[in-house]
């Protein structure tokens, strides 16, 4: 199993804005005062286009799908929460916490991927769990170590333990389950997605160990990463607030490996952390300020990795 891919699906926004339905437990979202919805969307589109162009420049195969005005899906720019694509040709559809995010699931995207030469064998659909208010938001909730067959998951209102274990049984992953917290107005609250505080590369892992309040859980997670020979690059909670945990390793041309992050994430890193990362991969960073502020997600959330086989 490969850990990184050269092919990425991204959804270009048409009506991006702050989603009030996700703000109830995504504490990274902010209201941008004084900006019209049109301005917010135009800024998000400009950030999106510049980001795609940087990825394509180094040879990442980016498939861009335009969002539609109807249904109203303010968070469609984050496709990795509702779908994942696997090397055996499986496509997984996930149950989403916010009702207006469920409308992001689009069958036509699967047709488009098949037109691009990807093979889809089976669709695994967990979305019925929504009826029981049970959620697992894709590779936002699940950090998959494909090579070592492990799935890391920080439990939250958007990541249900039983459903996560069911996923692991279906796909033969060993679950690594813990709770991760952030400080919000002096209170410790669960972080909504695992991929905000942790990134798994081929040979490294970026993690905010300070988010894992339980010492036993923290040790278990770090031991698991070390046991797979990953160099652990520790980041702080302040850096998590700048989306430094929300990175993704991808492949460019000639199998060259890159780690992708936002400009605010990059600027928050120390020289030592940058050197640690650059020992493994080249860094690509792009300004995503509007997307991060309104969406409460960053570079990683915008990229759905495609591992499907080709025809």
Automatic annotation (TrEMBL):
It comes from the Bacteria. Pfam families: DDAH_eukar (PF19420). InterPro entries: Amdntrnsf_FN0238. This is Arginine deiminase-related protein. The lineage of its organism: Bacteria, Pseudomonadati, Bacteroidota, Flavobacteriia, Flavobacteriales.
